[in-house]
Amino acid sequence: MTLTIRYFAWMREHTGTDLETVPLPENVSSVGDLVPHLAAMSDGHAQALKNMRAVRVAVNRTYGDLDTPVAAGDEVAFFPPVTGG
Q: Which of the listed residues 27, 40, 52, 71 has the most CB atoms within 10 Å of its CB?
């Protein structure tokens, strides 16, 4: 049972990847539960995920937040807010 994780923009630069597949830990049922697990994977992951107020999340291409449920087979995307001008 795995999750597909996507990182965009500067988050991709910190993690060194734009896409990874990770096992779904038994105690993870929401994005908020997932973040510490991902942050522990490397210093780059920790840097990318250290300020979740500056990060947006989508689960299965639907915007969510730290309370959004995750389950095996889901795609979770992390990205900075988009600005325009």
A: 52
Tokens of 68: 């959004």
What type of residue sits at position 17?
T
Return d(Cα 1, Cα 78) in angstroms, integer: 20
Q: pLDDT by residue (tens digit) across 36-58?
A: 999 999 999 999 999 999 899 99
- Domain borders along the chain are 2-79
At 18, is the secondary structure helix, strand, or coil?
coil
Is the dihedral angle over the CA atoms 11, 13, 14, 15 positive or is it negative? Answer: positive
DSSP structural state of residue 52: G
* One-letter amino acid for residue 39 of the chain: A
